[in-house]
Design brief:
The chain contains 1 helix and 4 strands, in the order H-E-E-E-E. It has 2 domains: 49 residues; 56 residues. It is 33% helix and 24% strand. Strand 2 and strand 3 form a beta hairpin. It is flat. The protein is α+β, with helices and mostly antiparallel strands and 136 residues long.
Length: 136
């Protein structure tokens, strides 16, 4: 009986350690992402970056239609240093392909958030733009 309790404690301890390692790695990833975002914002604020240059590029592949598999549809976001840009989406079916483009404008307030892919696009990544620094 005592051995069973000891083994259960050992298993619980190893599981707890595994969860801690995963959480630690995720925290480090988020800290790195925040640092990169701050570096970009500081470059824009200091004027050392061309505001028209592409800053962010994101592409998401997904199955938009039930009839097609293989993630053949996609959305592509091209955003410049001030948060303006375009999102191009291509919905691919068996008999036709439809392509759409949408202009993206920089958020005007700190509380504003930017475009997100359609919620019905399974597995789509969220692209969130931050408001530019005050005075820009």
């Amino acid at each position: 009986m005592l051995v069973a309790v000891a083994v259960a404690g050992l298993v619980a301890g190893v599981a707890g350690l595994s969860i801690a390692v995963v959480a630690h790695n995720r925290v480090n990833q988020v800290v790195d992402e925040c640092g990169e975002m701050l570096r970009r914002q500081l470059q824009v604020a200091s004027g050392s970056v061309d505001e028209r240059a592409l800053r962010d590029l994101a592409i998401v592949h997904y199955d938009a239609l039930k009839e097609m598999s293989g993630h053949r549809s996609f959305s592509l976001a091209l955003i410049n240093a001030v948060g303006d840009g375009v999102v191009v989406s291509s919905i691919n079916g068996r008999t036709e392909t439809r392509t759409y483009a949408k202009v993206v404008q920089a958020p005007t307030s700190a509380a504003a958030s930017a475009p997100r892919p359609a919620p019905d696009a399974p597995g789509s990544a969220h692209l969130t733009l931050q408001a530019p620094p005050a005075g820009k």
